[in-house]
Amino acid sequence: MDTERTVVPAIRDALFAACPVVRAASPEADAIAGVVPSFVAFPASTEEASALLRAAAAFGLAVVPRGAGTGMGWGPPPSACDLVIDLQAMDQVIEHTAGDLVARVQAGATTGHLAAVLAAAGQELALDVPADATVGGVVATGTTGPRRFRYGAPRDLLIGITVVRADGVVAHSGGKVVKNVAGYDLGKLFSGSQGTLGLITEATFRLHPRPAAVAWVTGDYRPTALADAAAAVAAAARSALVPSAVELAWSAGFLRMGVLLEGTSSGVAERAGRMAELIASAGGTPVVARSEAPLRWWDMVPAAGAPAVVVQVSFWLSRLAGVLEALAAAGASAGVAPVVSGAAGAGVLYACLDPGVADEDATRFVLVLRDALAAPAGSGPRGSVAVLAAPPAVTRTAGAFGPVPGAALMRAVKDQFDPGHRMFPGRLGGS
Known about the structure:
Strand content: 15-25%
Distance between the termini: 34 Å
Largest sheet: 8 strands, antiparallel
Radius of gyration: 23 Å
Helix content: 25-40%
Mean pLDDT: 89
């Protein structure tokens, strides 16, 4: 019997029965880091998404969720992919209760569409993310921007979530839902899970009023004055001036830290003056400026899928000076000049290498940096290093994540939610 001719039509028929919009995958449009799925499905509701995952479970299909695809290129590629579930048809703002500062949104809605709806009521979801990114994708990847310092990551703004497990069972957690699941905070569990635990179909967020005025206060330093810039970042982050963001951008010829202030016009003006004085006195003698123009560090980070090496470094604020020194030393050791930027006040930086950097040099940069930030005997780690994007040879040799202290717990949670390891297999630590 021709097994392929028998099984593939059965799979296709089961998927079409679950969701009316299913097509064959395209190598050009649907490949994920070279891995080409067989089918792409476009559910229009949680019920259709549930039916799709039940069908996938019946045939043992490996499944990868997809929103706008803006974050698909960051992280290890899937080890297998039979079915992509694209959520862009689930694009509605289901409910916006302006008086309660709450919005319930389908996972495929873009953050730009949500922002336009909320702006009419003078409100916002306080996440600085690309306008074409989907709500579900932002939650699944844990994507944040400058204002993470004040408002937190997506997990901190979620008050409710609807997910579909790998076996097709629908689960709810948090507010604005009919049924709650005891035992897990699904919002926090699924935030940053990269689609490896299940499919996010709805999210409920707490909102914030749009500020009446904003101001950026920046300090420019000599590119070698790392300790001074780190001292200014720490002083701003620990001040009582309520900064919304504390940023850093650094390359071979440029070093700038910046602070975002939000509030009333008079309050922002007064706090900006005090912040400028604090920055000027905290480290060295910087050139301090004030404006409404943002310190757009995210423009220095290549988009997901761009041909470059992107390394994320996470750390405690008190370790910032040492992290900057380690980045400089790793660059010198590997003969590369990283462009570094990010939410330094929140303990996150991105180091980017030019696309033309040799694989062995990029690998050395990662390994030297990871070794420098590893935990010395008798103390906690100085920082963690994750390779978000790199050529396959770099990821294979250096490893995407290095040692993960919570790996055993992550595997236990994965086994609980996806015992067949069919949801985005390979994305997180071999899951």
